[in-house]
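Table S2 (continued). Query chain:
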Amino acid sequence: MTVIRNNVVKTAFNKEAVLPYELRLQDFDSAIQDVYDFFYDVNSHLVGKGLDRLDDMLRPAIMSGVLSDMVTASLAKHSRTLVENRYFNGHPDLVVKGKYPGNSVKAGEFGIEIKTTRKAGGAVDTHGARDQWMCVFVYVVDNETEPSSNRQPLTFTEIYLGNVTVDDFRRNARGELGTRTATLHAEGIAKLRKNWIYRLDLPRKTTQPA
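Corresponding output:
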């Protein structure tokens, strides 16, 4: 199997996007490339040992969690003013450096929440409706092409960054054992998509939502 190295498509960025907290398009560029390089390095090692790619090993929900953590860490590394929230499972994922003691807050106002999903358009579930800057990374994983040696690498196809409010969400019904979640309603999603950061037109052959 040959491992394909992926690269950011520079022309897919929106130069008119509104970026808070001194963020730059190059910060997103670098964060995406960090993820691509990681998967290339890891998959090259795995395939060299006759094992499956990491993309094929991880279940969709786990993959989204891993990517969220990676993107958060990479944006914090490249950003001029944002750092990772040191509070375990705190909100938001990225906070303004020095705004909170030890850069740690359970529920803060100043920063950006990071989400990743395979759902085209960025309609991702959250643990609750909040006033927040929310950034959604949409990605595709090729788990279907046969032979597997022809599979394409993980690719980010969309990034949205919007300042949404509690009123932009709808509350989802909770199952008997489920946790209550909230998702942006139609107007909220339109608001988020209006400030798109990155859009790449690729065939979406593998679209299991996560």
